[in-house]
Design a protein that fits this description.
Elements lengths: L4 H16 L2 E5 L5 H10 L4 E5 L24 H12 L4 E5 L5 H7 L6 E4 L4 H13 L4 E4 L11 E5 L7 H11 L8 E5 L8 E3 L8 E3 L4 H18 L5 H33 L1
Parallel strand pairs: 1-2, 1-4, 2-3, 4-5, 5-7
Antiparallel strand pairs: 6-7, 8-9
Helix pairs in contact: 2-3, 2-7, 5-6
Length: 273
């Protein structure tokens, strides 16, 4: 029996073929990205590129898939590569042990991908990736802030520019607008209020100046939802929560337009009166 027999029962041989033909880029192999990458590999995606220049730190063990007591100091990309190939020895896997500088980002995105997964938790490289990938027309899923939160039931999918109650999403949206980007990036985010008391400052290395406390399952939940968006899009399956958010946004915009025209009409009547 094929190791993907249960998957084939769900999506059929045509679905398996769609996934097998796909090439997915996963950037960032921490608490979100390591789980997202594994779920992508276990779905039967035939080609992956994984990118992370970091090594395992003891503080990673509460939430990151490659982080064990026996792997401190080892490359996350190497550990994940070994794990993914143990799941699917036939996977066509490309491994980059790079921190995402603007130059590295532009070089990586000269290749062809069917989907770009942004699992970076630092603002500067995240912006570089999103702006470059968007300009090249890639389908993108971007993980927002999973730190400082506990409730997985508040994780949602929406266009990045329709997200709410997420500080990271706010800063990313604000900066991307300077590039003229106002839509077209799917985001996984949580509406839960961040526990601000869990914030700590860092040394600023690798573009990261602060971090929130984390719990084991929340980044993994973000990774699972990110992977689900990629897989469903590759299978041409509807993403109900994303589409519902789109409909809600269009409704809000229509109501705002109607309200604007009503006010304009009242102003005109006052002038005539």
């Amino acid at each position: 029996m094929s190791w993907l027999s249960r998957t084939e029962l769900l999506i059929g041989p045509e679905g398996l073929d769609l996934l097998h033909q796909a090439h997915v880029l996963v950037i960032g192999l921490g608490g979100v990205g390591s789980f997202a990458a594994e779920f992508i590999a276990r779905s039967g995606v035939g080609e992956m590129t994984i990118v992370d220049g970091d090594v395992v730190d003891p503080s990673n063990r509460n939430r990151q898939l490659p982080a064990l007591a026996t792997t401190h100091g080892l490359s996350k990309a190497d550990l994940m590569a070994e794990r993914l190939l143990s799941i699917n020895p036939d996977l066509k896997l490309h491994v980059r042990k790079d921190f995402l500088s603007p130059e590295a980002c532009r070089e990586i995105l000269t290749q062809s991908f069917d989907y770009v997964m942004d699992c970076i938790d630092s603002v500067t490289p995240k912006l570089t990736l999103l702006a470059t990938a968007h300009a090249k027309g890639y389908r993108i899923i971007s993980s927002m802030g999973a730190g400082g939160k506990l409730d997985p039931t508040q994780v949602q999918v929406a266009d990045l520019f329709q997200t709410k109650a997420c500080t990271l999403a706010y800063y990313v949206r604000k900066r991307l607008r300077r590039y003229g980007i106002q839509s077209g990036i799917k985001a996984v985010y949580s509406t839960e209020t961040v526990r601000s008391e869990s914030l700590m400052l860092t040394d600023g290395s690798n573009f990261k100046r602060s971090a929130y406390g984390t719990i084991s399952y929340l980044p993994a939940t973000f990774g699972a939802v990110c992977a689900s968006v990629v897989i469903r899009d590759l299978l041409n399956e509807p993403i109900a929560d994303y589409e519902a958010a789109q409909l809600e946004n269009r409704k809000r915009q229509r109501l705002e337009r109607e309200d604007f025209f009503r006010k304009q009409a009242k102003a005109e009547l006052r002038k005539k009166g």
